[in-house]
Specification:
By secondary structure, the chain is mostly helical. The protein has 14 helices and 5 strands.
Amino acid sequence: MRDERTALVDVVESFFIHRNDLSAATAANYRIAIAQFVRWCGASLGRPPTISDLEGGTVEAYLHFRRVTVSAQSARSGWVALRSLAKFLAERRIHHDNGDSVLRLVRQPKVKDEPRRALTDEEMWRVLEVSATGEMGLRDKALVWTLLGCGLRRAEAANLRFSDVKVHDRTLHVRAQTSKSVHPRDVTIPIETAKVLDEYLDQREGEIDADAPFFVDRHGRALSGNGIRKLFERLKVRSGIRDLCAHINRPTWATNFHRSGSGSRFDLMVEGGWTTGRMVERYTKARPVEERRRAPSPFTASRSARKEKRPLEKRPSHQISGLFGKRTA
């Protein structure tokens, strides 16, 4: 029977069984954060931590340690994972404070919300150009066009299967188990990206199984997320863009979606796999000032309204009442 004297590591697997709603990436991050807390407790307390050590004072000291020695973002990640674990223990009545989580009063570490930079037009076309060079140029070109044209996350692109991409219908399906949002979604493929993907598929030899990976390495195996990261490290050198990474494609896509009028704000949220409009605001950047100068003047609507003629006011027709011989409206 588990109680507060049970070793903390002994309840971790049960926690993940009950949190089967977590995406693979989030679960992996939670494991790392909990393991770091366990190691810190072992070094600070001189013994393996028990469930009772997951309490406000100890966790606040740990979060301060992470914030000072690593970063505020690392402290926030630890807070999210440990709070979720504490909530699970409270729901199971293993470790709680009058039925509530023992960490409910521990405040979230503040993290400066760093803006997501989008590539400029010149940078974007340069990346697309240099992606076509190299041994795997056709695959790299198709991958970059997909990230910039469809706004996929790195893991989502790495886990695409052949049956998920319908080039001729210009639709791309993101599976729930591969998405950070844990929700499936269908994404439209721009015509420019569809042409590149069609070219990429033409060079794939033999009959392709429906469950085969869409993007493969030079050995024909599925291209991993780490492989995509290394690809962008090479593209960073070729393009000369110092902060280039796979994730920068996502705010670039969102910004261009907005600039081009590719859909409404709701369409952008759906295609991006976001559940709140706040993420749209974080990723979407304003149009360049040169582009805004070419837009209609704020006086355009008012000027058009003044030119419109008002319809004539129509008075109700006069009618004679059959009963009293009086005019009625």
